[in-house]
Amino acid sequence: MFTAAALVPSPPLLIPELAGGAAAETDELRVASRGVAARLGALATRWTAIGVGRTECEIPATAAGTFRGYGADVRVALSPAASGPDPELPLAALIAGWLRAAAPTETVVDAIIVAEDTSPVYCAELGTRLRDRLEADPQPHGVLVIADGARTLTAKAPGSFDERAPEAQAELDRALDSGDAEYLAELDPVACLDIGIEGRAAWQVLAGLFGGEPSECRTYYRGAPYGVGYHVGMWLP
């Protein structure tokens, strides 16, 4: 049974040990992200995380990893029975493992990483298949969507400034706030790549997962620290 989708971003700065002097500046984002993970954990202790990476892969709940490659050996696990840390675990899976700590200890997460250039049609099909699989199981399931908005919102942003980015981010924010799955499904992969909306594929899996408007949308954070658009929220079926 599919219960809810929690939406979070993927910056390593979420982890205090990696944020350094910026920890206070990103505290609102961090608190919101852990809060929505706790809410998802109250609804379901079996999660599927959806993120974006260089290549498509599925990561089992037995996986564990470390943020060592990002500057600190902060270890995370996708379940209580996870094995030793995998140094190659994708960032989205690491974020999922870190957020799992905000949920009940028995929470188990498996992850699906979609390639950043995945077609909208494939993303929609993946979301639909995932929904069918979750609904077929009487156990409550939650989905954790890990995706960032535009990374070109200011001159000091990781992708520098793109004059198209503020309007594109505003429309993305509107869609995520209102549950406009149709808008997400129609995001153009080429335009998103140009503007630096790296979470496009994950948002389109979310659109396929719902197949229409959610019954309720909640937004807990919306902002662009360091010139990157981040959203924390929850969609209910």
UniProtKB/TrEMBL annotation:
Source organism phylogeny: Bacteria, Bacillati, Actinomycetota, Actinomycetes, Mycobacteriales
Species: Rhodococcus maanshanensis
SUPFAM superfamilies: LigB-like (SSF53213)
Domain of life of the source: Bacteria
Protein name as catalogued: Aromatic ring-opening dioxygenase, LigB subunit
